[in-house]
Amino acid sequence: MGRITMPTLLIGGGPSSPIPQEQIAAFAELLPDARHITVDAGHLVHETRPEEFLAAVAEFLSPADRTPS
Questions:
Q1: How far apart are CA 27 and CA 10, in angstroms?
Q2: Whole-angstrom Cα distance, residue 11 to residue 67?
Q3: CA 2, CA 19: separation in Å to the nearest integer?
């Protein structure tokens, strides 16, 4: 994980996701600049809740939200 140095967005699907959410949270803690959010949508967050998914991605990619390196 130490080789990943870019800002990273992890989107978990909540309790109905087959991927354990605690694993996603633990993964986020290993990355130097990770943001972890949960959208209660199961595994296919982008299909089940596209508006919330796109809003999270847009906010993450927003230049106003980034600090200069």
A1: 9
A2: 21
A3: 22
Q: What angle do CA 28, 36, 41 make, to 5 degrees?
A: 125
Pair of tokens at residue 69:
């390196």
For residue 2, what pLDDT band results from cuts at 50, 70 and 90? confident
Question: Which residues are bridge partners to 38 per DSSP?
Answer: 12
**Structure-token pair, residue 1:** 């994980």
pLDDT for residue 63:
78
Residues 8-28 have a mean pLDDT of: 93
**Measured between alpha carbons, how far is 23 from 34 in angstroms, rounded to an integer?**
14
- Could you tell me the two tokens for 49? 């809740």
- Tokens, residue 25: 């949270």
Q: Is 39 helix (H, G, I), strand (E, B) or coil?
A: coil
| Residue whose tokens read 């993964």 | 27
